[in-house]
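Supplementary Note 2. Why include the ligand at all?

Several targets in our set were suspected to adopt different conformations when bound, so apo predictions alone were not considered sufficient. For every target with a known small-molecule partner we therefore ran a joint prediction. The input for zinc ion is given below.
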Amino acid sequence: MAKRDYYEVLGVTKGANADEIKKAYRKAAIKHHPDKNPGDKEAEDKFKEAAEAYDILSNQDKKARYDQFGHQAANSGGGYGGGYGGGGGFSMDDIFSNFGDIFGGQFGGFGGFNGGSAGRAPVNQGSDLRIKVKLNLKEIANGTTKKLKINKMISCDKCKGSGAKDSNSYSTCSSCNGSGHVTQIVNTFFGKTQTTKACPTCHGEGKIITSPCDKCKGNGNIKGEEVIEIKIPAGVGEGIQLSVSGKGNAAFHGGINGDLLVLIEEEKDKYLIRDGNDLIYNLNITIPTALLGDSIEIPLVEGKAKVKIEPGTHSGKVLRLKGKGLPDINGYGRGDILAVIDIAVPSKLTSEEKSLISQLANSASFKKAECSEKQNIFERMHNFFR
Ligand SMILES: [Zn+2]
Ligand SMILES: [Zn+2]
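The joint prediction is reproduced in token form.
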């Protein structure tokens, strides 16, 4: 879905200051407020659109990025797991929790706004767990499966997560008469508004445990451990976070488990340096090899390969082994291995060697030799660092 210009959404000019932006958003939010336009999908969309525009334009960093790069940049959170990117937009709950203050006293009790629904019971949510997994180059190249024992909150096996001794261990919550939510009448800008929120006594469950499970003390979850198999796709890199749904901490009273977040770390390889999907190898050759040529073995991710050094090879030359790098995580082919030639120069010579080299230095070929690739040096550096 193409997005409208945020300035246009709020009806302000690009030069508008923070106060003008805030006022414009307030105006738009009041106009399109769902309480004022019940059941009007278009008004709801406009309300959300204005909230999104305000979120970006009221934040100096996001605004600067948006001004420079447009929608995509402004919404990308910088790294993985960044909030509401990609056009999903805001939920009503987000809007009220993020910008409730903007309405000031005028909108009083919007905290409990539930999109007009008759108080859906909140579901207990277990917290997310974070772990780090270190991978070597071979595992990154092929993808791997890791079996890890993880300490976490697990569902209580005795009560199956309910927290109650048995099915008769409940009584109906007297605060909400079992409905799980309580209703309040609030005076707002538009007159009296009915708001609904989760019952604070029973946490929205509608019932109270009278005899709790003795193993989990009525919580439904206990400290424990679980062996979890984590499938890691080929081509991942340092800092990438994978999410394993439902493998985080078990929730209070048998709610929804949190997620397991797996942060990838790369083990440094002894020989190959990663550059995106390419791998760089520093290929040291001797002066005689540079002059006379040879066939030399170099390490791959797995195994070895022979590369041919042409006679008269210069330092800095790059030999490209196509497709011997890492697979792209999104399946766009494979990178290469770039073997960068470095000519090893001995730092000490015997007097005999010195005299031999001196003789060579005066030979015709040595005298007229020049750095024939001089003109390419910038190009080669560019290739190397790209
Ligand atoms: Zn229990
Ligand atoms: Zn209740």
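Confidence is low (pLDDT under 50) at residues 76-88, 104-121. Residues 58 and 334 are 42 Å apart (CA to CA). Comparable summaries for the other entries are listed in the accompanying table.
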